[in-house]
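Final paragraph of the annual report: two paired records, presented back to back.
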Amino acid sequence: MLIVGEVHTGLLRGRGPLSATGAAMLVDLVAGEPVLRLERPRAYVRSPERPVGVDCPLGVPAAARQVRGIGTVLQRAAITGGHVVQGTAWATLTPADGSARRPWSHYLARPGVIETVGRARTGEVADAFAAAARDPAALDLGDIAGRASDVVQSAVPADGRPRERLRLPRTRLRFVVEEAASTGPPRFAVHGDQLRVLRVTLPAGADPRLLVAFGEDLALHDWLLTSVLGIVERAEIGVLPFGESLRRLRPAVDHLLHLWLPGRRDGDVARELWAAVERQDALSDQWRLLRDRIRDQVALAAVEALAGEPA
């Protein structure tokens, strides 16, 4: 069995954070299904999952014949802290019982399951999904995840007051979870400005939804780190006049620094995975360095203001 998915993360449109009620209305994507709402340890709302039917190649170049996937992908959207929107698409891949295509009722009865038709080893399929460059004709989970995020963004009420001085790119995190006899170290790779790939091997029996939630958590914190790093770089501390650097840093203080809270997803597996990523990539250490640099600038501004010196 193989679990694959992609998470798109970006800044929610609008001038300021949405209330929990307003955010819940934006992610109410499935009529009659409840929206998950959490207030602690921070505001979080998530839409119900809805199935999206797929029937397309899986992009396995090493296969002797084309490997297709038929079934449904689960799609959902979430908003964290009233500021950050995520769109997620994921599915479990299992071999089909035969080569004949079944009626759609068969696939709809198994939401979130894609049956693979054609000869290919699980490792080959995993390699195809983990590759930075994929066949344009192959299953594109990023497109499905992006559509969930776009629906939420397009529903943000227009108040005529765009968020000032904060333009942050969307990032994409693709995750591939393979079953193995034992747990292997997660491999987290950054490809350019937007794409990240997480590859994990776990023993059979792990709850797919907990793994998806971990992927969303990692995607959120990678986006925060990437965004704040970009803000600090554009502030050009020590190069630009002090007041201008401080002005450019302010959006990070207003909108992002309070959202860092990694490793709080349910389940021992998720906590172990986050600890392993931290050991290898030191995301929290990088965050603390950036946060402290920003706070040092704010503290220096306060000292100069008290001393009556111009910033």
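The closing record of the year follows.
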Amino acid sequence: MLLVCDDEGLLGKELLAIDGCKMSSNAAKEWSGTFQEFSEKHQKIKRQIKHHLREHQREDQATEDRDARQQRAEQAIETLNKAADKIEQFLKEAEPRKGQGKRKSEVKSNITDNESGKMTTSKGTIQGFNGVATVDKKHQIVVDAQAFGEGQEHHTLEPVLESIKDRFNRLEISADIYKTGMIVTVDTGFANESNMKYLHENSSNGYIPDNQFRSRDPKFTDQKTKYGKRKQHLRKTKLAELILASEFNFDPVNQICVCPAGNQISHRDEREDGNGNTKVYFEGRLSQCKNCDIKHQCMKNPESANHRKGSGRQVSFILENKRAPNYTDWMKHRVDSAKGKQIYSHRMSVVEPVFGNIGTNKGLNRFSLRGKEKVTGQWQLFCLVHNIEKLCNYGQLAA
């Protein structure tokens, strides 16, 4: 299909836009959790089964409505047994699922479809896949489509770019499409130090802004004042009214931090973040934050300080003397330049209409299959239909 589109003159090969579209899949969000959470749920179900068995034995001695009650109890016990067996079998056969970040910590598995992931979207938390599409600017042809079962997009950029390179080379469209000056614009969700390093080392003409690039642009200075924040009416505490970390008294020499209430809060960690910055982390003790008079101005969720599994106010500071220039700084200069702003302004108008066409006009609002391979096939099929429509409308094939 890509070769046909190129023959028809639909590929500009000047600018590619990459973004992801998160959609629910054929998997139950309720069956997500870590192995520890599954074990606790399994024990809870076992306790419920014992309770129903005791009730069943007690009702055997009663005469009034005995048959109806026994039937309900037997049905409840059967349902709970099936759920317990399902969890037990999963814990025996599967392995804990690891995240794709620097620290390979455990992420939530899913019993229904363990290749899907729990993702946060603008419409809430879903259990699904992230359909990543790469779109050529000239006629919005999808040149690559893949589905990933993780909410984080950072690790997906390199395999997507390598797939595009191999496909263009295999079809003899270009031996190395990135060496021809092809511009690649990527959404902020893909921004991290390793991706910036990958683009730099491969001499790719890519643009990935960090999530603060708007705040550095003078044109967006009063955007929040003029238009407000998204879903502001749903916020428990307006972030603009919270006491900022700059109000805390931080001593970088002695690694001490004193909160605005005058309490010295606990030093938790010192580590390098995804952008290569050395950060030091502090957290208020529960005994301090629980009884603090200004906790409603200091904490986004003040109620978290009221129970022992919660947490106090957390702040972090960059240790400037340990910070060295990194690849994120290199990308910031590219994106913040006049040329970079002009180039990146095309990204949304290239890729977002494709998602709108597939979701609204073609009716794909959720994946109906399970497993990464099948979901990727479904995502590619809808992208193929989108490309065929472009061929019908704009193709110039000679008779």
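The first helix runs from residue 2 to 7. This concludes the annual technical report; the extension proposal builds directly on these records.
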